[in-house]
Please model this.
Amino acid sequence: MKTWVGVDLDGCLAEYHGDPLTIGKPVPKMMRRVKRLLKAGKEVRIFTARVYYGPERSGLASANCKWVRNQRRLIRDWTIKHVGKELKATCVKDFLMEYLYDDRARQVVFNTGELVGRRRK
Model:
């Protein structure tokens, strides 16, 4: 089984200015990192809430499906244009995810609950 690396889209791989109907310009430093990972043979997936269609999103399942299909199309087109190939989009972690790049996450030391970079008092 091949592992994969998750990369958050909005605010991490692409600039985000509050409009979920568009995807912003690439963030150059993260784009270089993604291209290095791909060149090294890693699978990279876009990890984003844009493709979540659970009950909290809306009361209408069909509206949710239409939203997600549109978001997947936007992400596909954006990754082909800027990365050079389509990257799979997901909002689900699994045991094959090696690690995740995300602008909102806080890293925790494995099995301890301790935040990385924070001193204990």
Remarks:
- The domain at 4-101 is CATH 3.40.50 (Rossmann fold).
- The chain has a mean pLDDT of 90.
